[in-house]
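User: quick one - fold this with D-xylitol-5-phosphate bound?
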Amino acid sequence: PFTLSYMSTPQLTVRSTPCWGEAPMWSSTESEQENREAMLDHIGIAPSILSADMAKLGEEIDSIKTADYVHFDVMDGEFVPQLSFGHPVLKAVKKMTDVPIDVHLMVENPDETVASYLEAGANIVTFHVEAATHAHRIIQQIHTAQALAGVALNPGTSIYELDSLVDCADVILVMTVDPGFGGQSYLPSSADKIKAVRELCRKHHANPTIEVDGGINNDTAATVARAGARLLVAGSGVFKCPDRAKAIRQLKDAARLGLSEQA
Ligand code: DX5
Ligand code: ZN
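Assistant: Sure. Structure tokens for the protein plus D-xylitol-5-phosphate:
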């Protein structure tokens, strides 16, 4: 299964949630180094339930049980124009599935709200660098709760905002649309940005997983994977298809094809 733990920071040794349960821990022996490099090409798919039918959320969650993560979009009506759902719904979703949950906080005050999502059982919590007051403290708080920490970047935000964060974040979420709505078109400038983030990480000898979110379909999946993304969020790309398992498989295949064409 897709897992992030092999890419996590070396100082993180205590892991217990399903997303990293069976994965090798960080280590520097040669064979494990090779193993980790092989695993770098793993692609994860995280369907965004923002595009699901809320009137039958249980069935919708069940239809994506082959996914690597369930992507849970929290929107507060301030950081982005719309409202979505919050930690009480996350608690309910945790009861519906064993698939780990990837929480994307599109909120003005992640410093204050992160705790309730950790308590509700989030496996990855990603907050926006544009909204955080004390980003390092939020990351520490997430790690203390044994979850993985993600830092998200809007399309208009410079990658240099990540300069002091790539060393400690497990995930860098490169938004490939302006956040706030499902069903928007992928921004073509995103591929260069993903490559630039990868280069920045390389300079820091850091290896966070690059996640992308917005307008991901069978065409754009190949492009983002080739650029360096390994965890792909897809809302309409999964939920508009009646056969969700097939949609997830096709996205993964498309991304892998993109990887195999990598220069
Ligand atoms: C919107 C959310 C996304 C959204 C993606 O900003 O963060 O996760 O649900 O939807 P699609 O894949 O339809 O662009
Ligand atoms: Zn999202």
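One thing worth noting: Residues 5-29 have pLDDT under 50 and may be disordered.
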